[in-house]
Amino acid sequence: MKKFFDVSMIKFLLVGVVNTAVGSGAMFLLYNLAHWNYWICVGANYLLGGIVSYFLNKYFTFQNKEQSWAQVGRFALTVVVCAGIGYGIAKPLVRMALSGFSQSVQDNGAMLVGMVLYTGLNYLGQRFFAFREKDPK
Q1: Could you tell me which of 112, 123, 54 has the C-alpha nearest to residue 87?
Q2: Is the pTM of this model over 0.85?
Q3: CA 3 to chain centre
Q4: Is 93 exposed, middle or buried, given 0-12, 13-18 or 19+ CB atoms closer than 10 A?
């Protein structure tokens, strides 16, 4: 359990506050004010938030020293897979749960639930895949 719940999780959550402010702010503004498509708004969220997340988590949360394109690829893959799973699960579940509400309420609810699912999956992916510690051997 110590591997999952240590100082890196606290740092990850703090970085998540910044990512959320940047990415989700853009997502909800684009959806509700510009009336862009759900998936385009989610994509904008993770493009902007992902850039912030990469640098803050690499250097602050996990203090990772690796300099490689492979690591950037692992990070991007983690973000895409976690977002796809989190939001892909959230949309149909929230649509069923809020079937009596408007499309706008359903989509905003799905975005909120997707954020929660994404955060948990993304922590695991970044910690144990994207920024994993190299075996000293």
Answers
A1: 112
A2: no
A3: 20
A4: middle
